[in-house]
Amino acid sequence: MALNNTYEARLVQQETAVGAGVQILLLALLGTAIGMGPAGWLVGLAFAIATWAVLSRALHRSRPRSFGPANRVTLGRAILVGGVTALVADSFESSPPVTLLVGLTAVALILDGVDGKVARRTGTSTALGARFDMEVDAFLILVLSVYVSTQLGPWVLLIGGMRYAFVAAAKVAPWLNSPLPHSMARKTVAAMQGICLLLAGADLLPHLANLGVALLALGSLVWSFGRDVLWLWRNARVAAQALPTTEPAAPAAADLELRELAAAR
């Protein structure tokens, strides 16, 4: 059995290595097609190496029996996000091919609705897969917000940075780590971010329309995060207020036990 587990682990690690190789191949294709500069290459390679390292470490900790079909879809999305990241980095040196950037982003957003369905249909839903999917989504939004900020202003970075700010705040306020109830509104707002940023980044609409689309994305995100933070805060207060009513019960129970022991003697 130990040999079999080792063999499965090697297969899982091989899939992440193949993913890194495909990422480098995509960068080579992009570099050939558009003559990508040093910034795009460096950022793209850094993304490929970081994704491989973080994913390999997470897989080593969770030790899944196999990588799974849903994770393969998410890995494919991550590869596309790596290509988008390289193009955005390259855009600071030269004019980016908007059609190519929009195409890669659109495919990545479409596949966002595929990996979850694959996981449910194949019965391979895992906490690691859900976290992998969420991190890929969050990073894509961050990269798109960087790109759109060059057109509309640095305030757009709030869209991509809000989730990371929430994670940082949770380090200081652990009550933010409490689980949240299911919410379709939260999922809808999250899906809107990529679509709105893609639309604004494509620059197909007038400047004011692009500005309105980005403001809509930011406004809905602030509302969603604000609602969740308020719910978590109220839940933490209720839990804190319940503690004094339950903690004194322990001494009373202990006193009762001591009295019973004394009576038995």
From TrEMBL:
Membrane spanning stretches: 24-55, 211-233
Signal sequence range: none
Gene Ontology molecular function terms on file: phosphotransferase activity, for other substituted phosphate groups
Assigned keywords, A-Z: Membrane, Transferase, Transmembrane, Transmembrane helix
Swiss-Prot/TrEMBL GO biological process terms: phospholipid biosynthetic process
Family indicated by similarity: Belongs to the CDP-alcohol phosphatidyltransferase class-I family.
UniProt protein name: Membrane protein
